[in-house]
């Protein structure tokens, strides 16, 4: 029979695929031990693809030490070991409770073997440093990833923020990384707010939460958890300023029920803190998002009458948004709401849609209520 290199290669690939398939279905340590023997008999003990899968399967069975003792045995031929195999080992150790230091060990071993880390390597190593709470070690890894140019990767940067936040004395470094990120996402904000919350730095957590709202960051579930941590911290703050109150009201306006924002607003007034124009924007926004038309109109009037807050275009914008809610209520309620306060809605719409200084004339075949009359006089003075 004539020797064929093609047949030999095809057969090796078939054996490789068979091992990979068996590893995918492995659910016990006994079966894993049998597959270990099969890998040795098949001559695949230096095959990085098979060893990578063997590592992940071992990790799932809480047997990563078993895998690493086999893969990195003293007589192992490691010349073909690649980045993916090392990443699998590092990741597995980073996920353990008591052996995170081995993730760093294998990262150093990887570098010593001149196997190049990639952008997926560093988040695993940084998470291990975070679990260890080792600031010095984290700084070393940070320096290494800067040298290879991965400090601009958003996933790497997010993990650095998390790592520094978990290490004693590292929160300042976390904020520096956060501030210098060329691009951030909801995970970035969550990591930084969560870091402040963990250290009970309530003022910083609430202020950053406010900045997140201003930046119009679309939150995910993790951001919401971090944000509510900030709100809980707020409850325990001794000296609450108008800025801290407004930050939490804004957060409720964007992501919580409008009635909660109203409750917080009333609590602020009860604490003797006078609301400013920014607080009213958050409050009216909450009413708008939750469809609280009556409440929004009431607070708009109160803003002018009780606190002499001069309405700005943002306040009128909220009132216009509230007017859109009227399209979704039944005809009887719609007629009642429009009959009582439609003038202010019409003026708000006109202010938004016309150039400054344009005369605005509102025509209505019913008597103008006192609230709308007073508001109209004030708006005329403010906007000439």
UniProtKB/TrEMBL annotation:
InterPro entries in UniProt: DYW_dom, PPR_At4g14850-like_plant, PPR_rpt, TPR-like_helical_dom_sf
Molecular function, one GO term: zinc ion binding
Highest taxon of the lineage: Eukaryota
One Pfam family from the record: PPR_2
PPR repeats: 82-117, 185-219, 241-275
Keyword Repeat: yes
Record keywords: Repeat
Domain DYW, first and last residues per copy: 319-383
Protein's GO biological process: plant organ development; RNA modification
Family per similarity comment: Belongs to the PPR family. PCMP-H subfamily.
Protein's UniProt name: DYW domain-containing protein
């Amino acid at each position: 029979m004539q020797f064929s290199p093609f047949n030999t290669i095809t057969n090796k690939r078939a054996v490789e695929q068979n091992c990979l398939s068996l590893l995918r279905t492995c659910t016990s340590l006994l079966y894993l031990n049998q597959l270990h023997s099969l890998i040795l008999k098949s001559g695949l003990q230096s095959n990085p693809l098979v060893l990578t899968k063997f590592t992940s399967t071992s990790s799932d069975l809480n047997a990563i030490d078993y895998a690493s003792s086999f893969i990195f045995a003293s007589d192992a031929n490691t010349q073909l070991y690649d980045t993916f195999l090392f990443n699998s080992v590092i990741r597995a150790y980073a996920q353990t409770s008591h052996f995170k230091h081995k993730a760093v060990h294998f990262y150093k071993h990887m570098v010593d073997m001149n196997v190049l880390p990639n952008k997926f390597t560093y988040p695993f190593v940084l998470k291990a440093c975070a679990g260890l709470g080792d600031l010095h070690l984290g700084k070393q890894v940070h320096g290494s990833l800067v040298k290879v140019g991965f400090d601009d990767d958003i996933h790497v940067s997010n993990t650095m923020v998390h790592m520094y936040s978990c290490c004693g004395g590292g929160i300042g470094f976390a904020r520096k990384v956060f501030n210098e990120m060329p691009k951030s996402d909801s995970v970035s904000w969550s990591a930084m707010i969560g870091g402040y919350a963990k250290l009970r730095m309530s003022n910083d957590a609430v202020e950053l939460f406010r900045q997140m709202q201003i930046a119009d960051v679309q939150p995910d579930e993790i951001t919401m958890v971090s944000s509510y941590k900030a709100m809980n911290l707020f409850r325990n703050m001794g000296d609450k300023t108008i800025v801290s109150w407004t930050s939490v009201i804004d957060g409720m306006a964007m992501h919580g029920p409008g009635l909660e924002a109203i409750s917080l607003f009333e609590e602020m007034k009860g604490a003797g803190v006078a609301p400013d124009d920014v607080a009213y924007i958050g409050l009216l926004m909450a009413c708008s998002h939750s469809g609280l038309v009556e409440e929004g109109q009431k607070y708009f009037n109160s803003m002018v009458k009780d606190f002499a807050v001069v309405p700005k275009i943002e306040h009128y914008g909220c009132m216009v948004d509230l007017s859109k809610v009227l399209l979704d209520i039944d005809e009887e309620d719609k007629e009642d709401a429009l009959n009582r306060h439609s003038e202010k809605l019409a003026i708000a719409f006109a202010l938004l849609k016309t150039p400054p200084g344009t005369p605005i004339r509102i025509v209505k075949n019913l008597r103008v209520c006192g609230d709308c009359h007073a508001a109209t006089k004030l708006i005329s003075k403010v906007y000439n």
